[in-house]
Amino acid sequence: MVRKKNKIVVEPFDDIRIIGVCSHLEDYQLAWHLNKMLEINLVKYKDITNEDAQPFSFYLYNGGENSNAYNLVALSNGEAKWAKFSPATDYLVVIRNFISDENLQNIIAKIKAIPNVVFLYLIDLEKNKSIDAILEDIEMHEISLSKQG
C-alpha cells in the first residue's frame, strides 16, 4: 500500500493586488494624485534598488494593522527599466491586505480618472511569476526602512 504524502502549498504573497500603470506623469505627480483620489498619504522613501543596483522611486503608505498598505514603485528611472511587462508599465501600485472586489474596482476607477494615466490593468500573480522577485525586493526594502527608522 502506497502512503499518500500531504503537501502544504503556501502562497508567498496572500492578499495582495497589483495594478500596473502606464502614465506620462512623474512619480511625485502620480503619488500626489493617488493621495488625493484614494485619501491616503503615500510618502517617498529612499529609492529601492534592483539586482543591478539601479535606483527606482519608492513610496509607501501603511494604514495600520487592520487596513491596507500601499506602495507606488517606479519601473523605470530614465536610464534603466527594472522589469518589462506587456503591456508597457511605468509604475506598480501594490495593495496589501484584504480588499473586496468592489473596493478594488472603485480604486481602479479612481486611478483611471487621473489625468495622463494612459491605461492600467490588474496584474495576475498566477500568470506573471516574474513579479515575485519584485515583490520580494519591495518587502525586503520595507524591512530595511523599518530597521533604519
Question: Care to describe what's here?
Answer:
The protein is α+β, with helices and mostly antiparallel strands. Helices cover 28% and strands 28% of the residues. The chain has helices spanning 27-38, 101-112, 131-148; strands at 16-23, 43-49, 55-62, 69-74, 91-96, 117-123. A six-stranded antiparallel sheet has the order 2-3-4-5-1-6, sandwiched between helices. A hairpin with a 5-residue loop joins β2 (43-49) and β3 (55-62). Mean pLDDT is 88; it is low at 7-11.
Keywords:
149 residues; 28% helix; 3 helices; single chain; 6-stranded antiparallel sheet; alpha+beta
> How would a textbook summarize the main sheet?
6 strands, antiparallel
Beta content = 25-35%
Helix residue percentage = 25-40%
Order of strands, widest sheet: 2-3-4-5-1-6
Shape: globular
For the record, give the distance between the C-alpha atoms at the N and C termini, rounded to a whole number. Answer: 57 Å
SSE string, helices as H and strands as E: EHEEEEHEH
- The total strand number stands at 6
- pLDDT averaged residue by residue: 88
- The number of helical segments is 3
Q: How big is the Rg? A: 16 Å
- Would you tell me the structural class of the helices and strands? alpha+beta
- Taking pLDDT < 50 over at least 5 consecutive residues as the criterion, the unreliable ranges are 7-11
